[in-house]
Write a structure and sequence with these properties.
Elements lengths: L23 E12 L1 H5 L2 E2 L2 E4 L2 E2 H14 L1 H4 L10 E8 L4 E12 L4 H19 L7 E11 L6 E2 L3
Antiparallel strand pairs: 1-6, 1-7, 2-3, 3-4, 5-6, 7-8
Helix pairs in contact: 2-4
Length: 160
């Protein structure tokens, strides 16, 4: 038997059966860090970067929300979840880096970590897309789960 939840006794992939689980409030927070470099960061003004395509951070929040809502369409074994909240913060964390944080909340039978991770990934990719005319030397250097709550398994908090 596999230690992976998405592999059954016959070594076949599939969705986890959550039909017998209780519905509980679940939340997850994920983070992405994108190094945009000094050229892009020099365009930061009043908490956002204005590009020919529009306000970068505001557009990234919209794209991140859309990505979180469509997680089950992107990741094959994710259950469709009623996304009750998706909140983002996007702010500079150094002279070349931007940190994106997304917290998602649902009431359901399975966790919402993948929605938070999809949200920050979609936002980071949108920042890259909107700023690539200025510099293609940007790097998404980290995407990770920061914390999760709810469900049968213990709550999770990433090590500092």
């Amino acid at each position: 038997m596999s230690d992976f939840s998405h592999i059954d006794q016959n070594n076949q992939p599939g969705m986890v059966d959550v039909s017998t689980k209780e519905k509980t409030r679940r939340s997850a927070t994920a983070q992405s860090i994108i190094d945009v470099g000094p050229e892009v960061m020099a365009l930061l003004e009043d908490g956002d970067i204005q590009s020919k395509k529009g306000p970068v951070f505001h557009t990234a929040i919209i794209a991140g929300t859309m990505a979180a809502k469509k997680t089950s369409e992107l990741i094959p074994f994710c259950h469709p979840l009623p996304l009750e909240s998706a909140k983002f913060t996007i702010e500079p964390s150094s002279n070349t880096q931007i940190t994106i944080t997304c917290t998602c909340i649902t009431t359901g039978r399975t966790g919402i970590e993948m929605e938070a991770l999809s949200g920050v990934s979609g936002a980071a990719l949108t920042i890259y897309d909107m700023c690539k005319a200025v510099s293609k030397d940007m790097r998404i250097i980290e995407t990770c789960l920061i914390e999760k709550t709810g469900g049968k398994s213990d709550d999770y908090q990433a090590a500092p």
